[in-house]
Write a structure and sequence with these properties.
The chain is mainly alpha-helical. The protein has 26 helices and 6 strands.
């Protein structure tokens, strides 16, 4: 049995040579001390080596001081005086090796001790106190944030706003990483795990988010159970983007309509389609394919919205392409951003777009439409025209009169043929204001209501909605509200009210069966839009909306032709009682 020496460093077995302090210290005897507290056993029964250790192994006094601090006061520090001198020498070397092992720890302990010892009583320094004041820092942060917010309201991106020699841009690699990150967070949360190969290894997420010419074996999204629909939609996208060889008898419009129909009728497929398009746009090596992909996104963004889960990630993905000039992606992406905002607030369309509407939607970023746009944008398109209101308003109202709308039963209430309305709309969007070939006054009447309803902002701004509801029966207040509208809005509102007065004549009502109440009920939602999303509130306010428009039709007086063509300031007046 080998002999063992017991000391503060622990049991030293000649066979194992284990010097770990944790093996010897009794947990019950460990005592937590302050850094500056000295052990009561310091200097007691210290063993003094008989050999000059310092000449063979360099040691600093701090090492032994650290060793003494690590010692436990309850430990037996006596040494067996019957040990041979060679064992004492062996123990001394062992102790020196322990000191070397803890040298780095002792230096950090020492620096920590010095740091604590440097803390003294507060120094009277008002300047430093003011600089470290949390209230001053808080106010400074608020000012900086306010400055940033104010700047962002003017320009969304500092880098994109710079021009001239000082213009800077992100490196291409960094921009690609940012584009990847915008959709990457959504992917990690909602994407399904895709596997491949004999050993069924998971496909990396960045690969699932990148363009591919291959087919997919399962839907990208975890919650999507429509396997066949997802695979079919991805195949259609690849065919439309020319990423896959087309069959000989491939009909692009029918395939496009099938894609849109799937998104309209099956809500769970909408995010799947959006994500599939984003994947094919990410790291796509072909310019033609990129252009086609953004055109597809232009059509989808006017057909159905993404879910709330995908909405923010999709917006960021699109916005990060606003400065990409290649393949005119900047124009296309800005158009998609505007249409996404609108479709998210209004919801999906009720029917699939016709081939003519699909073609028009793909051209819309470069040929702005007169439908669904702000009034100032519409007026900018016809700046060379003499009309003071949008040309489409005078064209459609005249078409209703020309097609004998004043003798048509249920005019404005009976809808026109859907295909005919779409055809007339496409004709107008292409700049052809011609009603030749139409004999039903309900077609232009339906399109007129659609144009008013489809404006990006309501004809009467939302800020005046409550005033209209509160003063629905007050003719003076109602006329005053109309006269307070912006010029273009005011002229259109006055023109439309005078147009509806043509159908409120008793002799006309005998043919149309549409009295003032019916006219107000049909057109009130086109003049006013309730800002609330509560169905009860919308239903309750509808009767006040109708009463407001009925008051205007009954009591307001204005010259219709002056509203449309004269440069003079046009305002409405209250009818003089006869």
């Amino acid at each position: 049995m080998s002999s063992t020496i017991i000391y503060g460093a622990g049991s030293l077995d000649e066979d194992t040579k284990r010097h770990s302090r944790s093996l010897d210290l009794d947990p019950a005897s460990r005592t937590a001390r302050h850094l500056h507290q000295r052990s009561v056993s310091d200097g007691v029964d210290m063993f003094i080596p008989t050999e000059p250790i310092a000449t063979t192994i360099p040691m600093s006094n701090s090492v032994f001081s650290l060793y003494k601090k690590f010692g436990s006061p309850g430990r037996n520090r006596s040494l067996n005086h019957h040990c041979e001198s060679n064992k004492q020498s062996q123990f001394s070397k062992s102790r020196a090796s322990i000191g070397s092992a803890f040298s780095s720890l002792s230096s950090s302990r020492k620096s920590c001790s010095q740091r604590f010892s440097c803390v003294s009583s507060p120094v009277n320094n008002p300047g430093a106190a003011e600089a470290m004041s949390p209230m001053i820092k808080y106010n400074t942060i608020n000012e900086e944030q306010a400055t940033i917010v104010a700047y962002d309201e003017k320009t969304p991106s500092y880098l994109l706003a710079q021009t001239g020699e000082s213009k800077r841009s992100l490196p291409c690699s960094l921009q690609q990483e940012i584009n990847q990150f915008s959709i990457d967070g959504f992917a990690h949360k909602y994407f399904a795990t895709h596997k491949r190969g004999l050993f069924r290894r998971a496909i990396p997420m960045n690969e699932l988010l990148s363009w591919t010419r291959d087919s997919i074996k399962q839907p990208l999204l975890l919650s999507n159970k429509n396997y066949k629909d997802a695979l079919k939609c991805f195949k259609i996208l690849q065919l439309l983007m020319h990423d896959r060889q087309r069959p000989k008898h491939f009909n692009s419009m029918e395939s496009f309509q099938a894609l849109l129909s799937c998104g309209i009728s099956k809500g769970q497929m909408r995010d799947e389609i959006y994500v599939q398009v984003c994947r094919q746009l990410n790291k796509n090596p072909r310019g033609e394919s990129i252009r086609k992909g953004w055109e597809i996104l232009c059509v989808i963004s006017v057909t159905f919205p993404p879910s709330k889960n995908l909405e923010s990630s999709l917006f960021r993905f699109v916005e990060q392409h606003h400065n990409v000039t290649a393949n005119q992606v900047d124009v296309l992406s800005k158009y998609v951003s505007l249409k996404l905002i609108r479709i998210c607030s209004r919801g999906a369309r009720g029917k699939v777009l016709s081939p003519a509407e699909i073609e028009r939607a793909m051209e819309a970023p470069f040929k702005p439409s007169v439908f669904g746009e702000p009034l100032d944008v519409i007026m900018e398109q016809q700046k060379d025209d003499s009309s003071r209101i949008p040309k489409i308003v005078t064209f459609l109202t005249n078409a209703v009169h020309d097609l004998n709308g004043q003798t048509s039963e249920g005019i404005f209430r009976v809808p026109g043929d859907a295909d005919a309305v779409t055809e007339l709309r496409i004709r107008i969007e292409n700049g052809n204001y011609d009603s030749t070939g139409f004999d039903d006054p309900n077609v232009p009447a339906s399109l007129l209501k659609y144009w008013l309803r489809d404006l990006s902002e309501p004809l009467i701004p939302t800020s005046l909605y409550d005033d209209c509801i509160s003063n629905a029966h007050d003719k003076e207040k109602a006329v005053e509200i109309i006269n307070s509208l912006p010029e273009i809005n005011r002229r259109i509102a006055l023109y439309m009210i005078r147009f509806l007065q043509d159908f409120s004549d008793p002799q006309v009502i005998e043919h149309t069966l549409m009295n003032v109440v019916n006219l107000a009920m049909v057109f009130a939602p086109n003049f006013l839009r309730c800002p609330s999303v509560n169905l009860t509130t919308i239903f309750e306010n509808s009767k006040y909306e109708q009463a407001f428009l009925k008051t205007l039709i009954t009591e307001l007086e204005v010259d219709k032709e002056a509203c449309a063509f004269q440069d003079m300031d046009i305002i409405g007046r209250i009818k003089v009682a006869q």
